[in-house]
């Protein structure tokens, strides 16, 4: 009889050990390239779903046999980890939501809190659970839940310090500081009424330009399915291995659910000889989720490999893998945000601007000389100089003293221009990558290059370690970046003022989309990606960024404060074009910051 009683706990322990062994093998699978070990991932999912179902069906006997609540929480946490891992490999929102489901269940059912044990190992499991849940919540923009979990994490760290004095919890104190710093920099927390970073059909699909975009046909059309996002700055804002700049760009390359309901229903997998996809929805925790978490009507998100502080060789290996596997008629987006070492710039890293219209004459003299920047590239841009140009300036991916092994040169990118490439470089040596234009090995690359220096009315905003990059901010949240540049506080303005400002921008963007679609001089490099909503939005926001900084930056050496695109966009959308300058003027006037700009009377 005793042996029969022992069957359930023995079976359970066997399932736990088997699932844990499988989990250990897939935990460090890379998040890029073809589904590596996908077959084995299916086995791990199956093992944990079987384990979860078994403990549900035999909960009473297992508790009698000594099963602790934290053990149930650990199983749910592992399943959440598996789903989050699938999200990082595929960028499919359903996996992120599944991770949220299991983590929220752990929180609400207090699997860890309820035990009140003095076991240090269990406390570390709880700490790791909160950190993983916070990462999921940040990506889902669950700002209120983030605040709740942060307080729980802070309280747990304090409790651990009090009860385990012989153990050092410094890294967990730093984790709390990191998430608080991230919240202070992320406008999702500071401006609750701000529009989402993700592509939202309600806000980003402009009715007036939709017919023109729909009718637009280029000689060649490329599909955007893959991206590499990399940010590497000393002491930059981050949480875990997600930096603020990468987070903003990641959000910018995903769809915002439009409000379809997401309900979960219990479902048991069938295995009558049919392969079951255990990496799909679990159906094992029945919860009513918030209605806007997923939207099955949306296209899939582009897959994104997010690299945290990679070595140069690791970055090149990832780029090579994705380029090798890139489907025909597709384009890869590469986003690089890192410090550089320009060899020809000797100036302060930031300029401030607090000018009035009285200095307009001086500015116009300077900006007349800038016309060359918008009409024709420099000689080396056309690839006429020697290959040494490819290895002069660089991005710096490493700590001090590592030498050339930590330098990412423009020449390192050249071999990958055999495939269509949409390159965004945000760095104080970004212009070094101009040499790629005309030096491609097969496909002309689309280049969006940041200014060499940021410029703000308030110099405190220039600190990338506190606020992230200005250029990336313009590409991902243009109105917020505009306000940060001129020192206008969106958090203090009324909803009506904010909505009107957003409407001014939407009208401008719609108008510029029409101009792009109708322009006979639009280069094929831009034309072939114009039908993609994500890339089109980045191009439009680049035009806005360039126009704002053109009207705002200081008169001397102002080419250092302007972004560059190659090939050139049509002159009808240059910073001096009426269609562009009038929109900047309208927005500045509405927010009562027109005195920060020099603008022609239009």
From TrEMBL:
<dbReference type="InterPro" id="IPR022709">
    <property type="entry name" value="SCAI"/>
</dbReference>
<protein>
    <recommendedName>
        <fullName>Protein SCAI</fullName>
    </recommendedName>
</protein>
<dbReference type="Pfam" id="PF12070">
    <property type="entry name" value="SCAI"/>
</dbReference>
């Amino acid at each position: 009889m005793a042996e029969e009683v022992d069957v359930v706990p023995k079976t359970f322990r066997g399932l736990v050990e088997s699932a844990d062994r499988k989990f250990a093998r897939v935990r460090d699978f890379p998040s890029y390239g073809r589904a590596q070990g996908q077959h084995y991932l299916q086995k791990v999912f199956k093992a944990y779903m079987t384990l979860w179902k078994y403990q549900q069906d035999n909960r009473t006997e297992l508790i009698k046999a000594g099963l602790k609540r934290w053990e149930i929480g650990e199983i749910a946490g592992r399943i959440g980890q598996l789903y989050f891992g699938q999200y990082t490999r595929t960028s499919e929102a359903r996996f992120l939501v599944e991770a949220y489901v299991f983590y929220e269940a752990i929180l609400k059912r207090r699997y860890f809190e309820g035990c009140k044990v003095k076991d240090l190992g269990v406390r570390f499991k709880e700490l790791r659970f909160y950190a993983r849940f916070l990462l999921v919540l940040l990506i889902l923009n669950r700002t209120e839940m983030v605040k709740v979990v942060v307080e729980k994490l802070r309280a747990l760290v304090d409790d651990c310090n009090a009860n385990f004095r012989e153990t050092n919890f410094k890294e967990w104190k730093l984790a709390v500081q990191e998430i608080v710093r991230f919240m202070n920099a992320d406008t999702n927390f500071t401006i609750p009424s701000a529009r989402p970073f993700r592509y939202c059909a309600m806000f980003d699909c402009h009715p007036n330009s939709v017919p023109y975009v729909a009718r637009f046909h280029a000689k060649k059309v490329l599909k955007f399915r893959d991206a590499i996002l990399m940010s590497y700055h000393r002491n930059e804002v981050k949480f875990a291995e997600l930096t603020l700049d990468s987070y903003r760009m990641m959000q910018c390359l995903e769809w915002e659910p439009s409000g379809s309901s997401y309900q979960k229903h219990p479902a048991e997998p069938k295995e009558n000889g049919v392969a079951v996809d255990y990496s799909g929805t679990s159906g094992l925790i029945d919860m009513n989720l918030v209605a806007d978490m997923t939207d099955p009507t949306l296209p899939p998100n582009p897959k994104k490999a997010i690299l945290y502080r990679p070595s140069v060789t690791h970055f090149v290996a990832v780029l090579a893998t994705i380029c090798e596997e890139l489907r025909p008629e597709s384009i890869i987006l590469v986003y690089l945000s890192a410090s550089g070492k320009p060899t020809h710039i000797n100036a302060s890293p930031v300029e401030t601007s607090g000018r009035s219209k009285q200095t307009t004459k001086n500015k116009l003299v300077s900006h007349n000389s800038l016309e060359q920047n918008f009409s024709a590239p420099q000689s080396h841009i056309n690839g006429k100089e020697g290959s040494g140009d490819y290895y002069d300036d660089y991005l710096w991916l490493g700590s001090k003293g590592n030498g050339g092994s930590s330098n990412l040169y423009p020449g390192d990118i050249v071999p990958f221009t055999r495939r269509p490439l949409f390159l965004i470089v945000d760095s104080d040596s970004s212009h070094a990558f101009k040499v790629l234009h005309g030096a491609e090995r097969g496909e002309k690359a689309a280049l969006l290059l940041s200014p060499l220096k940021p410029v703000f009315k308030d110099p405190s905003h220039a600190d990338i370690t506190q606020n992230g990059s200005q250029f990336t901010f313009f590409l991902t949240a243009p109105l917020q970046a505009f306000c940060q540049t001129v020192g206008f506080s969106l958090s203090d303005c009324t909803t009506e003022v904010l909505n009107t400002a957003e409407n001014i921008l939407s009208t401008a963007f719609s108008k510029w989309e029409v101009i792009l679609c109708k322009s006979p001089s639009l280069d094929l490099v831009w034309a072939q990606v114009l039908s993609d909503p994500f890339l089109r939005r980045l191009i439009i926001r680049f035009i806005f960024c360039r126009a704002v900084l053109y009207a705002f930056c200081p008169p001397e050496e102002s080419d250092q404060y302007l972004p560059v695109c190659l090939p050139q966009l049509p002159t009808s959308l240059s910073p001096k074009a009426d269609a562009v300058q009038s929109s900047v003027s309208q927005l500045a006037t509405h927010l009562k910051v027109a005195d920060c700009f020099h603008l022609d009377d239009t």
